[in-house]
Design goal:
Largest sheet: 3 strands, antiparallel
Number of strands: 6
Strand content: 25-35%
CATH architecture of one domain: Orthogonal Bundle
Shape: elongated
Order of helices and strands: HHEHHEEEEE
Number of helices: 4
Distance between the termini: 39 Å
Oligomer: single chain
Length: 104
């Protein structure tokens, strides 16, 4: 059987997104890159919990990190996330196997 969905890769993405806090992190990062402290404050969550969720999202390839001095700044991975195009009503995640849209 030809695996057109790339089932292993797709399942990894969907598992990473299958948590309300991780989806909230994704929504926060839609506004732009943030460090874990800013994300924890925005979400009203413990720093350790947010850090754990970011690790899951990073391992799945949904977010990327970059060192900025003593901070690590997280952003949505550009290969997966596409911001609104002019005239579009939503932001889109293209996971390869399926697409998710975040509408305003």
């Amino acid at each position: 059987m030809r695996d057109r969905l790339q089932s292993n890769k797709c399942a990894r993405f969907l598992k990473a997104l299958a948590d309300p806090d991780r989806l909230k992190i994704i929504q926060c990062l839609q506004a732009g890159p943030m460090n874990v402290t800013d994300l924890a404050q925005s979400l009203g969550k413990e720093l350790a919990n947010v850090s754990h969720h970011l690790g899951v999202l990073r391992h799945a390839g949904l977010v990327q990190d970059e060192k900025d001095g003593k901070f690590v700044v997280y952003s949505l991975h550009p290969d997966v996330f596409r911001a609104k195009e002019s005239g579009a009503d939503s932001d889109k995640f293209d996971l390869g196997c399926c697409r998710l849209e975040f509408n305003d």
